[in-house]
């Protein structure tokens, strides 16, 4: 054999402890980390099916839905976006995408790959969200088969209310898809009440499990669309009609299908993440995130810094965007926090790159103590990162 | 909120310890399980990039390749199959698939979804593999763009030698893709020497990490095919041109692309799985699996049972298929082993369903003691599972 074993693998694995106050992943709690080291179970073992059933019910709870077709896809939150579009869109379908940050743009990219005709409603005034009237006008003009909305734009820190949109999409015979990756658990998401037809999230944000699973749910209306497809679902791995059989979502008496090898480890983590939310109660979890966010807003203003999203009701509590002050090198600030305190504060992404800091308040990390720590470090880091005399 | 927290999540997580001697996943060693409970790192943290670099080199080692475009996809082994076909095939391309079990059939299903024209070379005499002459004739007739071969068919326990096929595919201007999910580490796989253009595997078999990652590698020839595509790569999540940027496979100086949120937890596990193989040495790992397999063959024959694959050189050491004796209810046998001893022995899959037992010999579980245990339990379980007086 010509290729020798690499030297790097001889060295022991050393993982530093960090406090992850960026837009995700967040830190998993000791309870969740402990679950990850439990022995592996086979993907067709009854004990793992029981855990999958508990996860399904836990996702129904956090999504506030009774949809039977509710499960976790074995890939990152991004896969939720891809799976929803892949199952619901066919070539030449018109899809309308609300864009106020990078994730709407990404959805447009994905939808185009599946051959859909993409129409965009773009928020040019960054730092704001869409009104119901703007949305209704766009749906009326474009008559899309599917409307795609991001509830929490982690790149800009914008919160997009969903209430009222479902009534519009029903009126225009359109499907409503909502991305809740960065928002779920920090703001209410009432999937059934708000008439959302398909939604997905990520395991690694407020749920606090490791990345690698994407909670997802489809209602009967979405299922009917899939049943009426003229072309096959193009990707086997995202095929929700098969995944639904593996997760026992259709007929209780039907045998479980072996679609792919699920990751017992990740399922343990997600199960525990959802259990922690069920224990605390979803309302309380949301309140805790909102209180921490309010505390952060106050502290940021006390430091003389400005929030990127002006109006408080348009801010996503789980990801706060803060303007980089004039004369400050943002990279120095985040590097200082990481090097000196092993604290992650992020820079911007996509349209906000170089313009903002992003502070995540998610799950286990959403505590008053952590907010105080972030503010103290930020204050100190800013002093070390002035590039001119303006500050 | 109308949907109440589910009762099941109130109960503590309890995972039974089992010995997984089926076709995978296998048990992760304590070293690997311990790595899984390490704190989460962000997907753009330098420490995680270092681990990804080590994984890349570890995969190059187990694949015996110097391919720069070598990485792990963030989804199950199945995703490796999907990713290879998605990147290399375009609509109306002809693909030739060698089928001697369920995985070839699955590849055909996937290729059809991507719009390829599928030609199949089927082994009707189950329990055998393809000769070089059969393969060359089929390539000559069908003139495919891509030839798909499974090195180790876990459904039938058949080993397909790869040596010599690469010379044929080069002669006919065809790409050679090899599935090594169930075989890698139990038999040699010399990717570069054998002129394999793309290959993939799973993390949860001989590598002994949890499921959820798929090692994958493309050579320059495969890359050229991708560069010359007339249509875009249809699936963002499998897009190897973007994944390669995230894994720093192209230009050393280029910044890492944020393609998706990788799972730190799973990367720790895979890193440790590859480190364990590097420590023991790949040749020794392969020998250990082959010794255990020989021990199992002998024991099975001593029990008066028959192996499904007649000729020893056609048997996959990591998955042994054993004929269910007349008068024995196979399900009772596997249930007895699981209930009484928490030992997983599997039934057949696809073409072998109901006909065989499948015993996996993989990674941490590949020890002489475990083989003795399997044989002892099998002997006892058979006695309890006779349905007629024939045995």
TrEMBL record, chains A, B:
Annotated Aminotransferase class V domain residues: 41-369
Catalyzed reaction equations: glyoxylate + L-alanine = glycine + pyruvate
Binding positions (substrate): 358
EC number, UniProt record: 2.6.1.44
Subcellular location: Peroxisome
Similarity section: Belongs to the class-V pyridoxal-phosphate-dependent aminotransferase family.
Protein name: alanine--glyoxylate transaminase
Biological source species: Dendroctonus ponderosae (Mountain pine beetle)
Lineage, highest ranks first: Eukaryota, Metazoa, Ecdysozoa, Arthropoda, Hexapoda
Primary gene name: 109546645
């Amino acid at each position: 054999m010509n290729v020798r074993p690499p030297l790097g693998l001889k060295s022991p694995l050393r993982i530093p402890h960090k406090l992850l106050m960026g837009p995700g992943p967040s830190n998993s709690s000791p309870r969740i980390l402990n679950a990850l080291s439990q022995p592996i179970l086979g993907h067709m073992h009854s004990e793992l099916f029981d855990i999958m059933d508990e996860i399904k019910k836990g996702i129904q709870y956090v999504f506030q839905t009774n949809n039977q077709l509710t499960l976790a896809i074995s890939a990152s939150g991004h896969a939720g976006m891809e799976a929803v579009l892949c199952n619901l869109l066919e070539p030449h379908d018109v899809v309308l995408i609300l864009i106020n940050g990078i994730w709407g743009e990404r959805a447009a990219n994905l939808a185009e790959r599946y051959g859909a005709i993409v129409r965009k409603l773009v928020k040019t005034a960054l730092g704001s969200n869409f009104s119901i009237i703007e949305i209704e006008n766009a749906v009326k003009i474009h008559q899309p088969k599917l409307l795609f909305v991001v509830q929490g734009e982690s790149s800009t820190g914008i919160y997009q209310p969903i209430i009222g949109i479902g009534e519009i999409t029903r009126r225009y015979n359109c499907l409503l898809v909502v991305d809740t990756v960065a928002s779920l658990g920090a703001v209410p998401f009432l999937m059934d009440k708000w008439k959302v037809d398909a939604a997905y999230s990520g395991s690694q944000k407020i749920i606090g499990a490791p990345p690698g699973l994407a909670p997802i749910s489809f209602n009967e209306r979405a299922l009917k669309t899939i049943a009426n497809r003229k072309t096959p679902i193009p990707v086997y791995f995202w095929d929700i009609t098969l995944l639904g059989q593996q997760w026992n979502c259709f007929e209780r008496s039907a045998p479980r299908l072996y679609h792919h090898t699920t990751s017992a480890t990740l399922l343990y983590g997600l199960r525990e993440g959802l259990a922690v939310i069920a224990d605390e109660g979803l309302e309380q979890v949301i309140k805790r995130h909102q209180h921490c966010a309010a505390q952060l807003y106050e502290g940021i203003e006390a430091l003389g810094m400005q929030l990127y999203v002006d109006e408080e009701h348009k801010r996503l509590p789980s990801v706060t965007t803060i303007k980089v002050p004039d004369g400050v090198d943002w990279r120095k600030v985040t590097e200082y926090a990481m090097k000196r305190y092993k604290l992650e504060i992020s820079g911007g992404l996509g349209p906000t790159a170089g313009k903002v800091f992003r502070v995540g308040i998610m799950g286990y990390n959403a505590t008053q103590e952590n907010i105080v720590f972030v503010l103290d470090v930020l204050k100190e880091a800013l002093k070390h990162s002035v590039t001119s005399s303006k500050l």
